[in-house]
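From the shared-data thread, chain only:
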Amino acid sequence: MDLHWLKPLLGRPSPFTTVYLDVTRADAAGEAEAADRWKAVRRQLERDGAPARVLDEIGELVATPTGVRGPHGRVIVSDADGVVVDRVLAEPPAQAHAVHGPVPALLPAVRAADQTVSYLLVEVDRNGADLTWATGGSVRTLGGPEVETVEGGHDDVHKTREGGLDRRSQTRAEDSWQRNAEAVAAVLDKRVSERSPDVVVLTGDGRAVGMVRDAVAQHVTEVLVEVPGGARGDGVNQDVFDSRVVEVLSGFRGRRRDAVLARFREAQGRGEGAVTTLDDVIEVLRRGQVSELVLHVDALSQGLSEQQLWVGDEPLQLASSAADLASIGVSEGARQLPADVALVRAAIGQDAGLTFAENGSVDLVDGIGAVLRWSDGSTPSEAVPTQSADQARLRTVV
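Structure, as tokens:
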């Protein structure tokens, strides 16, 4: 799971205001319900001391539709100057959550990252295609989704059923279909290279879908999924098609998570390339070795959020105690942060991802582990007990 979109929070001035809200708007009644939910959250934040100008800015955002159909949520994080993060959640929260304090409440934002998938919807016919972006939870306001239209430029696309000279018309039509498909594929190759969506959803006219699929480059083929039932224009059973897309995206999220956990298990089996225990993860985080942070699904809410770590001004300056932080040369700016904030902050600071693990999926001590980019002789390792904080494997494994 990519956390790069949380980077704007690094180094921002406190205090922070975090809002986690159900913003579903199914009809006019839904508009009123969303407004009422925000009013209740605002009253709480006012009591906690959040400034009115920040709340006004958040309120204006909440009042603006996201452009997302169906049930969904929204996480908004503001620093002392204004809104820094505004993200759509694939699932609405069961109840609103709002925090005003010295650090952002990262749990909702991290959960949002786990739920979202950036994808490009490509609806094709024999003339061209419409490309619609859904960029991984980004809010689409003031004009709706970002859509790009590609016209092939070859409009002789109709066959005839008669014989004789009209066979030439049939040949010209098929040639036009092919060249239009190639024009769509060329644009698609470029856009996927530029923006790297997680998934490309291809739908529309069956013949055109096949031609575009065969014409795109390998890097597009690797992320392309054909989903029947969509079309360029009217005549689509939108609910059925949307449910198929949801299934595709859910499947991708599962595969993304399973791939990371498989890497973690394999590295543990080798005795290198992965660590567990809080102390070992702190060590590899501050060395910039982490490719993916692995957390038990309950670790943030039931364990790590209740612990404190010491940090410096830089994201990779973290330790379990003030003395440990001083041992790496950090004394000025030393302070305590909740462990979940400090760990996610360090992961963001080295462009690491984050994956949640369910019960029994991997062997985690302290509810935390990490897949490493690299390791050397001084890297903590369970294969060398003296190098690991988990020498006897006596702690609780979840």
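Residues 156-165, 384-388, 390-398 have pLDDT under 50 and may be disordered.
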